[in-house]
Write a structure and sequence with these properties.
heterodimer; A: alpha/beta; Rossmann fold; 4-stranded antiparallel β-sheet; 11 helices; 10 strands; globular; B: mainly alpha; Methane Monooxygenase Hydroxylase, Chain G, domain 1; 7 helices; 0% strand; PhoU_dom (chain B); transport (chain B); PhoU-like_sf (chain B); phosphate transport (chain B); Phosphate-specific transport system accessory protein PhoU (chain B)
């Protein structure tokens, strides 16, 4: 569902400075020559291909090859290649300005909406190139849904928030014409609303007030409503951009449980600033670092117990960033 | 560097674990001296002074739990805290075994087996402990395998000494009274050998956790 454009942060603050000379003494690990660090405290280190060559069993849902993004002259994402396994949770982590949200938005062509953005490379969904000029963007974003940092329900009833997308896609017919032609889908709509809300673990809390305005829900409920709204059009991939960062711990844990549950049926890609959250809920983690580089991509336990890159180690242990 | 306080806590944990290790090592050396000189009064003091080490061990274990809960260490920091947590247990066990060795000296009736070389065995074990602690303190993976190799040698020597004792018992063909005394002494000596051998095992554990901590390599962890 493509209705939630609000996040136009272009992540252009690259903190790289190669001449800072502020060596903090970090990163001197065997086999990696690290003599300087950036102003962010990041050590200089050459990314090795094998650090991002993640192998997994089962099919890949999204295949990204040599993806570059520029915002004007700023090279925001540099030659990222990554395969995302089907029906799993992939976390994207990294400091502000590392390109992780830019990358997420490339996966359903949200960056098309930013005029200054130029994108080069390939993203395939089930082997189909999404940057093909003939791609139907409405259909694409139906297959690859998105949930944003701050919940943004429509100022409509809870029910309408869910059924809006399917109605726009012509999957539910309601109203005068439908009734005249005898193909009123009210029952189908009710089923869809209940199923979507149940999937988003919200049904029990709202089943008695489906006609209330969605803006009267709590922040955590609104976010789950947005997830339900995303699920209502039956997507295959769900992109989440810091979906719990504006929520309290209880609401956050509900979203996290939900993400784990959704990964049984959907491919979830989630950007988070909360490293413990990435560790808790994801199957694999991709670490982007300053300069728009994908530095390491592997099983989540590998990343958090024994990363290959010294810069990744320094970042996740909180030594810079 | 960010997370300064956290880094200080990690450094403090390392220092405290090493200090506890030194206390345990000193305790063990005193036990060996008592074993060598049959000094019952020294041995009795060591055998009764284990509670202080137990308290320190519990405090440091709690520090590890606090670090896990409050700082959520990852990667190298995680492996360091996890390794320290395990190493603390080994140190506490070694302290128990040092107390055991001292208690055997207190209980010894006579010097039935004068020349078994038990103090040499124990000195090897305490040397392995010191080396393992030094490797841990420096985060040095290169010394860990050598400690495991020395343990294989120590195990062999312990076995040979134990066989020597059994053979002595069989060859001696004692009468009933002497048998009574001999059985007590043989048991004491065999327990001493077993505990020395176990000290070596705990030293290997410390080396194994140190290798894991430094290199994420579990090769020495059985």
């Amino acid at each position: 569902m493509n209705n939630q454009i609000g996040d136009t942060d272009t992540e252009t603050d690259t903190n790289v400075s190669t001449d800072s000379g502020t060596d903090s003494g970090l990163g001197a690990t065997a086999g990696v020559e690290t003599s300087t660090t950036t102003t962010a405290g990041e050590s200089e280190e050459q990314v090795r291909d094998e650090w991002t060559d993640y192998r997994f069993d089962g099919p890949s849902k999204l295949t990204v090859e040599n993806l570059d993004v520029w915002y004007g002259d700023d090279h925001a994402l540099k030659d990222v290649s990554m395969e995302i396994p089907e029906k799993s949770v992939t976390a994207l982590i990294g400091p502000s300005g590392c390109g992780k949200s830019t990358y997420l938005r490339c996966l359903n062509r949200m960056n098309d909406r930013i005029k200054a953005a130029r994108i080069d490379g390939s993203v395939e969904l089930d082997g189909m190139e999404i940057y093909d000029p003939n791609t139907n963007l409405v259909e694409l974003r139906k297959r690859i849904g998105m949930v944003f940092q701050s919940p943004n329900p429509f100022p409509k009833s809870i029910r309408d928030n869910i059924s809006y997308g399917p109605r726009k896609h012509g999957e539910i017919n309601k109203g005068l014409l439908a009734r005249l032609f005898g193909n009123d889908d009210s029952e189908k709509e009710a089923e869809l609303v209940e199923r979507s809300l149940r999937q988003a673990a919200l049904w029990d809390e709202v089943q008695d007030r489906l006609d209330d305005n969605a803006l009267g829900l709590s922040g955590g409920q609104q976010q789950r409503l947005c997830i339900a709204r995303c699920l209502a059009v039956d997507p295959e991939v769900i992109l989440m951009d810091e979906p719990a960062s504006a929520l309290d711990p209880i609401a956050t844990s509900k979203i996290e449980d939900l993400v784990t549950e959704l990964a049984k049926d959907y491919t979830v890609v989630i950007v988070t600033h909360n490293m413990q959250q990435a560790a808790r809920i994801s199957d694999q983690t991709a670490v982007f670092l300053t300069g728009g580089e994908l530095v390491e991509y592997d099983d989540t336990d590998k990343i958090f117990e024994n990363p290959e890159s010294q810069r990744v180690e320094d970042y996740i242990t909180g030594k810079f960033g | 560097m960010a997370r300064d306080e956290f880094q200080r806590e990690l450094d403090a944990l390392r220092d405290e674990v090493v200090r506890l290790g030194e206390v345990v090592s000193t305790r063990l050396r005193k036990s060996i001296t008592a074993l060598d000189s049959h000094d019952v009064s020294v041995a009795a003091r060591i055998a009764d002074a284990d509670s202080e080490i137990n308290e320190r061990y519990l405090d440091l274990e709690q520090d590890c739990i606090d670090l896990f809960a409050l700082q959520q260490p990852v990667a190298g920091d995680l492996r360091f805290v996890a390794a320290s947590f395990k190493i603390l247990t080994d140190l506490e066990r070694i302290a128990d075994l040092a107390a055991n060795l001292a208690a055997y000296v207190v209980g010894a009736e006579d010097e039935v087996f004068p020349d078994l070389g038990l103090t040499d065995l124990a000195t090897t074990a305490v040397g392995m402990l010191d080396d393992a602690l030094a490797a841990y303190e420096d985060g040095d993976p290169t010394r860990c395998s050598a400690i495991a190799d020395r343990d294989d040698d120590l195990d062999g020597r312990c076995e040979r000494v134990a066989q020597q004792v059994i053979r002595y018992l069989v060859d001696r063909d004692p009468d009933a009274d002497e048998l009574e005394l001999l059985l007590t002494e043989v048991t004491r000596v065999l327990l001493t050998i077993r505990d020395i051998e176990r000290i070596g095992d705990h030293a290997v554990n410390i080396a194994a956790r140190t290798l894991y901590m430094a290199e994420n390599d579990d090769a020495l962890i059985y």
